[in-house]
Amino acid sequence: MSRLQDSAAAALRGALQDGITLAVGGFGLSGIPADLIEAVRDSGVKDLTVVSNNMGVDGKGLGILIEAGQVRKVIASYVGENKLFAEQYLAGKLEVEFTPQGTLAERLRAGGAGIPAFYTKTGVGTLVAEGKPVEVFDGETYVRERAIRADVALVHAHTADTDGNLVYRYTARNFNPVVATAGQLTIAEAEVILQPGEVDPNHIVTPGVFVQRLVQATGRVKDIEQRTVRARPGLVSA
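Request: output the structure for the sequence above.
Response:
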């Protein structure tokens, strides 16, 4: 059955409410569902808990939800590129739950796999483990981490078919696959949308069973947070 919607706004219709948990794919500005993020901003929904590797940068990605005052809590592993985020956090306007990057990925994966919690050595003896149960296995101490199950998950794929099967490209195959499985409702945007049977099954990363809605992504420049280049030896500039 086709999951294709007419627009990002249509794909989000009826899915958003104040206070929900929103999981969002992407790594920095790579592979972010930009159209869907903008539609969330335009919806005016507020008091969101956002789960993402990071919160974009000022004026781009999830940073636009921070600017609009729509986010109450963030669960992330890295937020260093967003000055407004830091200001709101230090001012006590934004609750933050820092999670090691691998632990965050596993919490999302576990949520999608129906695993309520797991044990990891990462964070033992640090602030990350404060207030969490610990156990000793084979003489080593582990901290228990809860899985993450989001009300709505937003992801970006390069290619999809109308049945919701997703293929990611290069660095965009980062947090998108685990976010896609962690949503009660998962909405994907894709740059290329094909008919059923036109995507090689061997290339599918996220099966359509995890995706309820799909929208065509808008063509846009793919931003890079910090473009750093160096002169090539022997290259004479014009």
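The chain has six helices and eleven strands.
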